[in-house]
Design brief:
about 240 residues, about 15% helix, globular
Length: about 240
């Protein structure tokens, strides 16, 4: 799965990466950065492909299908399984027509032991990861609109499997171009829904401070305190 993400770069760095790496030609608005604990229902930074080029902006994390009677983001869909995305009425149309990238520098997942232990995952040498996503624009009764998204997930690689049995689909820049392009054949798009190479990723255990979505500071990414069984003593 993908339970939380972070985006800890400043606005200038993000804007530079958007243009240089992802060919973004327009930015509607950016979510507040740096952000150390982005949870479902928060705003994430997303890229969508348009006829006028790739555009970036803030989107609510939590997919709201168009047929929903009331847009309650407390009960939305934050992840979509890549293996069944075309079988689910809530996701099929968006997968075919409204694919997006969700940008983060870390994603967080929990290993369930005696307590929920959070781990931060990243791509080595990359300032930003592009996670495969789908989005929808929902029109409320008052005429306002809500842009929302979900992260695509797949089987875990060997690193992720140490913590969880699912992981977000991570796309390198070349694959991200194909993902966003509405002209890409669906069979090719489906083949992108694969685990990222484990040897190109890193992880470390972070403080349980991040477990509460109310905690938003840099302490969320502090390394966890050593467990008793991990401590070494000089004799």
């Amino acid at each position: 799965m993908c339970g939380r993400v972070t985006l800890t770069l400043d606005k200038a760095d993000i804007e530079a990466i958007l243009g240089e790496t992802f060919g973004v030609t327009g930015i509607a608005n950016l979510p507040e950065v740096p952000a150390y604990n982005i949870a479902p229902s928060d705003q994430v930074l997303s890229i969508v492909g348009t006829e006028g080029g790739n555009r970036a902006g803030a989107v609510t994390w939590g997919f709201v299908p168009h047929w929903t009677k009331e847009a309650d983001i407390r009960h939305t869909l934050i992840n979509a399984r890549g293996e069944t995305v075309t079988d689910k009425p809530a996701f099929k149309e968006a997968f075919m027509q409204r694919r997006c990238l969700i940008l983060a520098d870390y994603f967080i997942e929990w290993k369930r032991e005696d307590i929920k232990r959070p781990y931060a995952f990243s791509v080595m040498g990359a300032k930003i990861m592009a996670l495969a996503g789908i989005y929808n624009v929902y029109y409320k009764k008052d005429g306002s609109k809500l842009s929302s998204c979900a992260v695509l997930t797949c089987e875990p690689n060997s690193l992720m499997a140490k913590v969880h049995n699912r992981m977000p689909v991570i796309l390198d820049p070349a694959k991200a171009v194909s993902w966003l392009d509405s002209r890409t054949k669906i069979d090719i798009v489906k083949n992108l829904l694969a685990p990222y190479e484990a040897q190109k990723m890193s992880m470390y255990e972070v403080s349980t401070y991040i477990n509460s979505s109310r905690n938003k500071g840099a302490a969320c990414l502090e390394p966890a305190s050593p467990r008793p069984e991990q401590m070494r003593f000089d004799l």
